[in-house]
Design goal:
Elements: E1 8-10, E2 13-15, H1 27-40, H2 44-57, E3 66-67, E4 73-74, H3 84-93
Antiparallel strand pairs: 1-2, 3-4
Helix pairs in contact: 1-2
């Protein structure tokens, strides 16, 4: 499959239709993207773009809902704590 590349001359420079940018990756991300690129026979930039598009298209992870010993659903901690004081304040709003 042949791709056409449109070139634009601007001030003595030539640009193609692809955006060029620099990114800083941590060592593990760079290694994984490099291995992926080598395995697919594509450039590192193409591999990173492909991996980003795949991640965007992936379905969201299923929520981690477990049942307690008495059969009630238990949700994973969200980092927010519901205190008795917060419950009292919420109840007072309905009085």
């Amino acid at each position: 499959m042949e791709q056409k590349v449109s070139l634009v001359h601007f001030g003595g420079m030539v640009y193609n239709r692809y955006m060029r940018t620099n990114v800083t990756l941590d060592e593990e991300a760079h290694q994984l993207a490099s291995i992926y690129a080598t395995a697919k026979g594509i450039t590192l930039g193409a591999a990173i773009g492909e991996l980003i598009r795949k991640a965007e298209a992936a379905p969201p992870a299923a929520p981690d809902i477990r049942l307690s010993a008495n059969g009630l659903p238990c949700f994973p901690p969200s980092g927010k704590v519901l205190t008795p004081q917060m419950v009292k304040e919420a109840e007072s709003e309905f009085d």
